[in-house]
Amino acid sequence: MEETWKLKRAFIDLTAGAVSGGISRTVTSPLDVIKIRFQVQLEPTFSRASLQRELYRQSKYTGVWQATKDIFREEGFRGFWRGNVPALLMVMPYTSIQFTVLHKLKTLASGSSKTADHINLSPYLSYVSGALAGCAATLGSYPFDLVRTILASQGEPKVYSTMRSAFVDIVKTRGFQGLYAGLSPTLVEIIPYAGLQFGTYDTFKRWAMEWNRSTFNRRSSRKPEDLTSFQIFLCGLASGTAAKSVCHPLDVVKKRFQRKLQRLRKAENKNTTKRSPGMIRIEGLQRHPKYGARVENSAYKNMYDALRQIVRMEGYAGLYKGIVPSVIKAAPAGAVTFVAYEYTSDWLESILR
């Protein structure tokens, strides 16, 4: 009987995680596209950067509203969902693995498989469980994250028309290891990010429960431990904001590594394949020149070197490119994810009992 319930519990976590991740990702896709465009742009992303034009060419994107208008004018409404299919293929298995591993780790730590008992774990264990679950999910879904970044950042005219063409070109020119470009900074980022997100979410839930107890109405049919959907939404909103604000510089570095462009090999120079005028043909990942300077293959030796060079060339503001749409996206994304997961999980649990 116990073994049967463990299988049911795993199915609940996998399904609820996939549903919550899919809903959250689709709703927040426009902000994610804008965020990625900012992060892979070497030029400043604010309008006052005109003072630095002796160092940079004119920026393509200089603000959230300006980027929104440009993307809509050049690419239409569908441009805001560019790369959404590989993003869903990345996010849905990511959240499935994450919530499944998280529940298993909390079960081991608390000695109980009941979700209600997991809230009593120490904050330390909540942070560690979240970090480990995030690492496991990242390893299982990373190639889709890479392709999503490429498709979302390429703009118009397109270089890769489909997810398949991007996959094939990366594997052909870089090998299968090319599908894991930027994995190291991603893993370094995901440890504090997932730890903070799940750790602070549990902390905010405990605070909400304490507040419910202090204002408990005996006539109410709701128990103090039963949070409302609005309270869950606020807890997810706060946890997403906190995690993204702290970890955003690492996300910028990750996107730079994913978007790192390589020089043409001598053999490719002899290639007679026709190319569009003005199009930069590079090894693996391509980008049209109107979207700004390229990140060359030799630009960053490692993660620390990338952080150092970004600060040297672009200032500390370079580490926070895309922070506004990133936080605006992370807050509701976290909120929607947790609300959808909690309700989907409760519904599946009620019908599978």
UniProtKB/TrEMBL annotation:
Protein localization: Mitochondrion membrane
Main location: mitochondrion
Membrane topology recorded in Swiss-Prot or TrEMBL: Multi-pass membrane protein
Cellular component per GO, a single term: mitochondrial membrane
Keywords for the protein's UniProt record, in alphabetical order: Membrane, Mitochondrion, Repeat, Transmembrane, Transmembrane helix, Transport
PROSITE patterns in the record: SOLCAR
Family under the similarity heading: Belongs to the mitochondrial carrier (TC 2.A.29) family.
Protein name: Mitochondrial thiamine pyrophosphate carrier
